[in-house]
Specification:
It is a single chain. The chain is 30% helix and 29% strand. By secondary structure, the protein is an alpha+beta fold. The chain folds into 2 domains: 155 residues, 2-Layer Sandwich (Ribosomal Protein S5, domain 2); 117 residues, Alpha-Beta Plaits (2-Layer Sandwich). Strand 5 and strand 6 form a beta hairpin.
Length: 292
Amino acid sequence: MVSSIKIKTYAKINLYLDVVGKYSNGFHEIESIFQTVSLADSLNFNEAPEGIHITTNDESLPTNEKNLVYKTVKKIQEIAKIRRGIHIHIEKHIPMGAGLGGGSANSAGTIYALNKLWDLEWDENTLVDIAKELGSDVPYFLKGGTQAVGGKGERLSPLIPLSNRWIVLIHPPFSLSTAKVYQHPTLKIRPHYKKGDKYSLSFRKAICALYKSDWDKIIYNRLEIPAFNIHPELYKLRLKIKKLGFPHVGMTGSGSTFFVIVESKEQGEKLMNQLNSKTHLVKTISFSIQEI
């Protein structure tokens, strides 16, 4: 029986994101292409005599019941009917409030790690069911890679892996509230696709374009307009990136991070050297959790 486990949990970008409906409970229905990238947090799990103890390198991250990892541990304890103690150290590298899914990735990693550490032997379906209760994006982070995503984020369909593609992540010096972006009056929800269709026609076209790397027909985010209205600096930054000669740029999630598809590591470094913002040069990967 192991008493500790260390993992990396990887960030995601939304190559395509549309809002196609709204549920009676207030959640929005989306169509999206999720893709994991090689920017990761590290989580170190160690058995403790009792309690849930979280430490971190990031002072802005709560370590109490407001933390999604803390909530995830509590949920697992309740379902498994156990009260084993755990100490978790979270080494943050994925910016918060950036549209990269760092918190959801950490939650999925915690489900994965405690299933092994506590010998729960839950199957994949059970893990996914737990993930659905913790957040819309959490089920995706149990799988990772290139996925077509529907519903609130829980409907996943694997696509042909988009691996080893160079991407520059650009992080403005501020975060965005997901709730404020979705609630902004400039968000116009597109009429729903035809009844009986799994996906809308525009989403199916974007998926087909993905197989041809036709980025002009893939990169789209309906949340950009409300995000740009909340922070006009985002629009200016997007315009600047395009003027520098990098046309394949989009916002991920509800912002504030932009991603730029580049042809090579050298091209990515060239862009980074021309920007004042914090940046990361990453690659697309086909997984979201890795033991280290």
